[in-house]
Amino acid sequence: MSEAPHHDNDPVLQTLILAGVFAALCAVRLTTLNVPYFDEAHYLPAAREILSGGDYINREHPLLGKVILAAGIGLVGDNPLGWRIFPLFAGVITIVASMRAMWHATRTRFATLAFGVLLASGFMLLIQSRIAMLDIFLMCFLALAAWQFSAAVRRPEQGRRRLAATGVFLGFAMAAKWSAIPVAVLPGLAFFAARLSAGRRRLLTSQRGIPVPGVSLLEAFVWLGIVPLVIYAASFAPAYFLAENTLSRYGLFAMHREMLALQTQILAPHAYQSNWPEWVMNARAIWYFFEPVNGVQRGVMVIGNPLTMLLGLPALGWCLFKGLTQRHWPSLAMAVGYLASLSLWFFAAKSVQFYFHYFIPHVFMLGALAMALEEWWNRGSRIVPLAVLAGSVGIFAWFYPILTAGALGDPMDFLNYAWIKGWR
Q: What strands lie across the sheet with 296-302, from one edge to the other?
C-alpha cells in the first residue's frame, strides 16, 4: 500500500503571532512625529472636512480612504494616534490576509510563513502602516480579496459567499485608490479563462468545472464584475453631505472627468520623484521626513529591503516559467499580478510618480520569492531559504530606526542607511 500524501497543517496560530509582532513593530514611535508629514498634509485636511461636512477637497482620489482616516480622527481625536491608528490596523490585516491567501493558494506552511516574514521585513508595508496615506487601505482590501478568492477556489462548497466577499473587497480597494484597478480585474479574468479552458458547451450558464464548481460564469460576473462597481459607486455617497461640488451638482460621471483631469495635470517636479525602472532596481528612495523633532534629528526613509527587492526579480521569472510550463496557477498568479500592477505605470499620464507606487507590485514580488524559497526547501536545500529569510530580517533590523523615525546621532547619520546616491 502506498503512503497517504503529506498535508501541511494550517499555520493559523503562527500567522497571528507574526501579525502581533508586526503590530508591535509598527506601534513603536507611531506618534513621535506629532505633525503631519509627507502626503498626510493632503489627506488629513480632506478627512477633517468630511468630519465637519465642509468642503470636498483632494478630489483627485476616491473617498473611502479619507473616510476611514476621518473615522480614526472622530474616534480617537485629531492627533497623531487618531491619524495613524487605522493605517496601522490596515497593515496588520494586510499581513494576515496575504498569508491566508498564500495558504489557500499553495497549502504549504513554509511558503505561507516565508511570505509573512518577507512582508514584515520588506520595509514598505511597515512604513505605509505608520502614515495616514491611502495606499495601505488599497493594499489591505486587495489582500482581503485575494484571501477570499483563493479560498473560493480551494473550498468550492463556500464558493458563492467567498466570491461575493471578493467582489465587495475589490470594490473597496478601487474606492480607496485607482491604483487597484489593474489588479481588481484579474479575478474575473482568471475565472473566465479557467472556465473557458474547461471547454463547457454552455460557457455562460454551466456550473461545472474549474475554478469554482457550482458557480456559473454569469453568476461570477455578478460577484466579480457588477458588485465591485456598485460598491465603488456607493463609496461616493458621503460627498453628497459635503459642500457643493461636481458630484452633487452634475453626477458621478462628471466627477470622474474632474478626477481624471486632476490626476493627469502637469505638476511641478519633486526632489524625490522617480519612475518604474528605478523602482524595479530599488534605486530611488523617498525621504518622507528628515527634520529635528524637539532637538533630536529624525528621519523616515522609504525604500525596499535591499536583499529581497533584488532576489525577488529572478523569483518572478521562475514563477512565470513554472506557471506557464507546469500550469502551476499560484506561481503564475504572482507573476501576472506583478506585471499587471506595474504595467499601470508604463502608460499612466501622471507627471510626478514616487517609489510608494511600487507598493502593490512589491507584494506580488515577495510572494514570488516565498514560492521560490519553498521550492528550495522542498528539494532539501534548507540553508538557502533560511539564509534569505535571516538576511531579510537582519537588514530590516539595521534599517528599523530610519524606517520608524528613530533618533539619529547627528544629521549626517543618514549616510548609514543611504548606501547609494539615489537613496539620498
A: 286-293, 296-302, 407-408
The whole-angstrom separation of Cα 122 and Cα 342 is 18
Dihedral sign of CA atoms 161, 16, 335, 318 in order:
negative
pLDDT one-digit tens code per residue, 58-84 = 999 999 999 999 999 999 999 999 999
**How many CB atoms sit inside 10 A of residue 180's CB?**
29
The band of 237, judged by pLDDT with boundaries at 50, 70 and 90, is very high
Cis ω for the linkage preceding 156 (within 30 of 0): no
Q: pLDDT for 318-341, tens place per residue?
A: 999 999 999 999 999 999 999 999
Average pLDDT of the chain to the nearest whole number: 93
274-277 contact pairs (CB < 8 A, 24+): 274/353, 274/354, 274/355, 275/345, 275/353, 276/342, 276/345, 276/346, 276/353, 276/357, 276/358
- Report helix, strand or coil for 300: strand
In degrees and rounded to multiples of 5, residue 379 shows phi and psi of -85, 5
Q: Which three cell numbers stand for residue 217?
A: 460564469
Per DSSP, the three-state class of 132 is coil
> How much is the pLDDT for 6?
55
Decide if pLDDT at 1 tops 50: no
In whole angstroms, what is the distance from residue 74 CA to residue 222 CA? 35
pTM of the full structure: 0.95
Distances (CA, A) of 330 to 107, 111, 146, 301, 335: 10, 11, 11, 32, 9
pLDDT number for residue 290: 93
Q: How far apart are CA 71 and CA 184, in angstroms?
A: 25
* Full DSSP string of 48-63: HHHHHT-----TTS-S
List the one residue out of 212, 182, 181 whose CA is nearest residue 195.
212
In this structure, what DSSP letter does residue 305 have? -
Axis crossing angle, helix 135-154 with helix 64-76, rounded to the nearest 10: 110
